[in-house]
UniProtKB/TrEMBL annotation:
Species this chain originates from: Achromobacter veterisilvae
InterPro entries: DNA-bd_dom_put_sf, HTH_17, SinI_DNA-bd, WH-like_DNA-bd_sf
Lineage of source species: Bacteria, Pseudomonadati, Pseudomonadota, Betaproteobacteria, Burkholderiales
Transmembrane spans: none
Protein name: Helix-turn-helix domain-containing protein
Classification via NCBIfam families: excise
């Protein structure tokens, strides 16, 4: 059965590539609970849908700060 990309879970490496930052940056954000993430067997995982929502909130927050 096909699934939507929004149902997908991403690794630290995939999120880092998506956001064009280092894996270390994503690890720090996840550990500090500044980005939506959870651990599976000691490994961080990220919901693609939640990351997209988080990006949107970051963009909206940035616009408010500039005015």
């Amino acid at each position: 059965m096909p699934t939507s990309n929004d149902d997908e879970f991403l690794t630290i490496k995939q999120v880092a590539e998506l956001l064009k930052v280092t894996e270390r940056t994503i690890y720090r954000l996840a550990a500090a609970k500044q980005i939506p993430a959870f651990k599976v067997g000691g490994t961080w995982r990220f919901s693609r849908a939640e990351i997209k929502q988080w990006i949107q909130r970051q963009q909206e927050g940035g616009k408010a700060d500039k005015t």
